[in-house]
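Lab meeting tomorrow. Look over both lines:
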Amino acid sequence: MLELIILGVVFTVLLFFGVPVSFCIGIATLLALFNVTPDIPTAFVISAQRMTSSLDSFTLVAIPLFILAGSMMNTGGIALRLIDFAKVIVGWLPGSLAHISCVANALFGAISGSAVASAAAVGSTLSPLQRKEKYDMPFCAAVNVASSPCGLLIPPSGALIVYSLISGGTPVDVLFVAGYVPGLLMMIAVMAWVAWKARGGFLPATVHRYSVGESLRIALRAIPALLLVVIIMGGIVAGVFTATEAAGVAALYTFILGRFFYKSLTWKGLVKATLDASVGTAVVMLMVGVSMTMSWLLASTGSAKMLAEAIIAFSDNPYVLMMLFNVLLLLLGTFLDITPGLLIFTPIFLPVAMKLGISPVHFGIIITFNLCIGIATPPVGSTLFVAARVSQVSLSLLTRPLLPMFALQIIALFLVTYIPELSLWLPKLILGKAG
């Protein structure tokens, strides 16, 4: 019990003083380990061994490869093709540029696997057009913030790969297919508010219509990028390759697409993309290592079991506990990025959820959905700062227009929480299994 208190207190204090989350977890875990193993050299050795062994995973190889694919997409200008394609899909709607932002974020976020990259690419491309057509820029920036995490639920998703690892091997293919409907619901929640504001005359009525010929040309330019998802998911569902092998295919396909098809990925751009991917991989792997060490400590000392028993003692009603999980994750997610959030809370909440008969796949979608909302909320929301910067909008002006969008997304979250089939029916239909 004492190590649990040490973990909580040290982590909270360090986070309050702005220490990076991975160091907060690592230092708190090490100090808690001193309580279990008073011999300091032994504690350091155990920590190093646990970090190393936790990273020795074939599944984890997918993460740097997907990050590299996303970096090459950012550098290679693939986002522009996807934004043009989004214009064809929803450009005819009133308030079209705001709707386009939602669809483009879902498309690009799903392919790149990064909400921050999506917010930056979509925001920097659409903001000048929105400003020119007299859109309310704080509102447009808020739309970009709220819709940019949608792609993290739509496969291929690095967040769901992390959840698969930490949850003890929940099938990645099932998680990927299960993420489609919740990810689209998250996007539709934002689009519903945009449609309401457009109907009330708050947004310009200008629409972006294309002739059949123009639509076909734009679609043909975008199809090679969109085929990436088809190849990855088709290969995984058909059993041609694993999620890790799919990540390698994604990186190779993106390189060929950017370098030889679109010819927008220069050798200099490739070097930059590789360096960016290396930094991103180092950050994620350090986070995984320290978080897995913390999870091992909680499990080996019985603290995780004690927490689970305390939660069940609060209530054994699955509806009440799922409400509690959502409230806690929404609150705590405002202080954590999605990867540390998954690594910290999955080992604590998943055993409780499974005792209540909740599918690990369903719970994985629920926790990811919660943390997707969290990365768009202050004070730590990473997409918030990026969208504000590229839109040249003050953070203080973003909060008010964001609130209705978050409210609708939370409604979508509770629909996903209490209607499991929203997550599970598609895996059953396509894969013949839901776990």
